Amino acid sequence: MADTNRPPPVLLDVRTEAEYAVSHLPGARRVDSRASASQVVGPLERGRAVVTYCSVGYRSSQMAARLQKAGRTNVFNLDGSIFQWANEGRPLEQAGKPAKMVHPYNEAFGKLLREELRAQVPAVKE
C-alpha cells in the first residue's frame, strides 16, 4: 500500500455500517459482508489490487474468496484486519477526518483491541 510506483489498492471494508461509521482505513469503501461477487466486482477498477478487511479477518476472507472465485486476481485479505492495523498505530478515519477508536464488534473480540482503542458502542448484531 505504500508503493507509490503503482496505483493504490482498492480497500474494501467488509464490516457493518455501524462498524464502518466508527472508523475505517483511509479511503476504504464499505461493502456488505453478504454481498455477492457480482454486486462488488462491477464498481471495482480492473487491474488494481483489491484488499479486503473486517475486524479480525473472517468476513473479509470470505469476501476475498468470493471475488477470486468470480475471476478477480490480485485480491488480498489484510492480515490481522482493522484490529491489528489500529493496534499498530496506523491511520484511521471517520467521515474523512482522523479517528482513534475502532468498533470492537463484541465484548469477546474487542479484547483483541488495545483498551484505549475500543469504542463504547453496542455489539454487532448480524
Overview of this protein structure:
Helix content is 27%, strand content 15%. The protein is built from 5 helices and 6 strands; from the N terminus they run βαβαβαβαββα. The chain has a 4-stranded parallel beta sheet with strand order 2-1-3-4, covered by helices on one side.
What is the total domain count?
1
Which superfamily, in CATH terms, is the homologous superfamily?
A: Rhodanese-like domain
CATH class placement: Alpha Beta
Separation of the first and last Cα atoms: 30 Å
Return the string of H and E elements.
EHEHEHEHEEH
Main β sheet profile:
4 strands, parallel
Entry keywords:
single chain, 126 residues, alpha/beta, Oxidized Rhodanese, domain 1, four-stranded parallel sheet, 6 strands, 15% strand
